[in-house]
Design goal:
By secondary structure, the protein is mainly beta. The protein contains nine helices and 42 strands. It has three domains: about 15-250, Sandwich (Jelly Rolls); about 255-445, Exo-inulinase, domain 1 (Jelly Rolls, Sandwich); about 455-715, Jelly Rolls (Sandwich), CATH 2.60.120. The protein is about 10% helix and about 35% strand.
Amino acid sequence: MRSHPHYSSSPAHPRSAFLITLLILFGGAAPTVVGQEGRSKFRSLFDGQTLSGWHGNNPHSTARAEPEGRAAAVETQQAEFVEHWRAENGELVNDGRGPYATTDEDFGDIELQLDYKTVAKADSGIYLRGTPQIQIWDTTREGGKWDRDADAGSGGLFNNTKGAPGQLPLRLADKPFGRWNHFRVVQIGSRTWVELNDQLVVDGAIMENYWDKQRATPLSAAGPIHLQTHGGEIRWKNVRVREIGTDEAISRLRGDDSKFGFVSLFNGEDLSGWSGAVDDYEVKNRAIVCKSGKGGVLFTDEEYENFVVRLEFKLPPGGNNGLAIRYPGQGRAAYDGMCELQVLDDSAEKYSKLDPRQYHGSVYGIAAAHRGYLNPAGEWNYQEVTVDGSRIKVELNGTVIVDTDVSEITEYKGDLAHPGKDRPRGHFGFAGHNDPVMFRNIAIKRLPDSPQRQAWEDVRSGLVFHASFDDGTDADLSTGHGKLRIAESTKREKLLDGDGQTYDYGEVIEIDKGRGRSGGALRFKKKVDEVFFYEGIEAGYQKENWSGTVSVWLKLDPDRDLEPGFCDPIQITERAWNDGAFFIDFDKELPRDFRFGVFPDFETWNPNDTKFNDVPVADRPLVTVESPPFRRDAWTHVCFTWRNVNATDGSPASSSLYLNGQLQGAIRRPLRFTWNPKDVGVMIGVNYVGLMDELSIHDRALTEDQVQHLYRSPADLR
């Protein structure tokens, strides 16, 4: 029995002595999962003669009351409960009306067995941990609910998201009316197995938390069993339950590693295959243990990109460790690696005031885990971690406690940047923090390369310029000179950093280490007349059928940070902004719009030399975005592409603008660019004040999927 309040706001029982429990429940207290060794025996939940151990509660009605009034709402249902429920000949009988029969006890990991028999046109269900439900249908056409998939049969997790695993049963296993049906249900964490009449109908599917309409919160760690009544007589008998202990739970959740393609990382005897802080760890009882008072990162010899790792761990009271994900082999797991997944005894008093992103399972300092699913200190836990691209999922003891895309997170604990967050590969390991935390049965499975991986390799092979701004202003890769230059104006006729001249860059720009979208960033401190640029960047220029892409990250509030006038974070041209040029800019009027300009040779788009303000808006080669998503506290990804410029057959070119991976607009018209590539300048930060990072130029037009990958994982350029 689990006598703990629910983690989520599911409407629970109470009755007399446990009214207090209900009040705690709706106060939002988090549960502690109680584990136990060994296999317990079944015990009956229904004595066959009375309603002892049960009370009435329709949780849907209870949920409509204010939290402080829900205990009273349950109490008002008790008269109706005894009116419509009765014990008869060893059967628990309901006439089709009234509140649901609800156990006085809360349960966590259990095996539940029972028999039921119902009548035509009735439906019912079994709520686990106070949450709907294992569905019971009239599966006939005459029942009138084939439009709700009743013809698929009973036993499915009906309230799961449509199409989710387990939402419909694997097979139709119902017996005809008038005959008893038998359910065997196993629930460990949120994982649920259902057998109906000895046929498997749900195979370890996650039962979603119906009470959270966004389905972001996991199923409660404990809660009552409800037997639903809905429209017709239903009879129950042989209702019995047994609690599932830790060893059995781990065995069922894990299954056969080799069957599922996992390979062991630890031989149980020594640290062969591991590197790093090997002197600070030891092997005890076939487990890797961090020595007391020691620490550091112990990591695998091999590197991994996308993978699933499964392991068991045991925490001492107050214990602290971590899982190092895509660790580079040196530095801090939480910052220089992709991340550290916290391994922590959440119950310790000394940790009571941590940032939510520091508790067990959290992506340390980045994303908080759901709490309340950790076994007590001194007991083994089972955890499975999936790392796929920038997405991380952590499942603890059968419940998903983290499922997040770290590339979308820009706010961190203490405002400390995580420069390694976008690492595409690295080692797996343990990040010790002085406590003897134990790890055993460690196995890993490499995932296939992401479906976009080959396309992404094509992106990398087409890279002609990349400036990460991690350690300086010069490009990491360039087909041109790659050195950041400075000129007196956008005409670039007079250089200010050549022929023995010096220019105090520090007054205007600086590398802001650790503050970038990935690594460092280039900060433009103030507006100046001078212009910074890279020269000789061909951008893959072709006289015929030319395509390309520019990508950059910006961080600013344009209405508050920019000084009066136009601002071009990027302008690429040989001559001028309106003559053979690509640019992105913020216009000068508040609130500032964001624009993408593709201006071919001047005489081709403005043959009559019309003043720009007199050119009809529809004829201007611009994509304009009103109320663009730029912010001081978040990075915005800007990407623009062009296809079929200088088409030999005169067909229109297509130029597209993306913000944060989403298409904002496109320009379709014939475009002619006549460039001398060595004279083309890639000008950056023209009148710009803010941060810039990860500037790249590609000799091909990226697809929408490739643009989205670049948005999610900019570090993959490295």
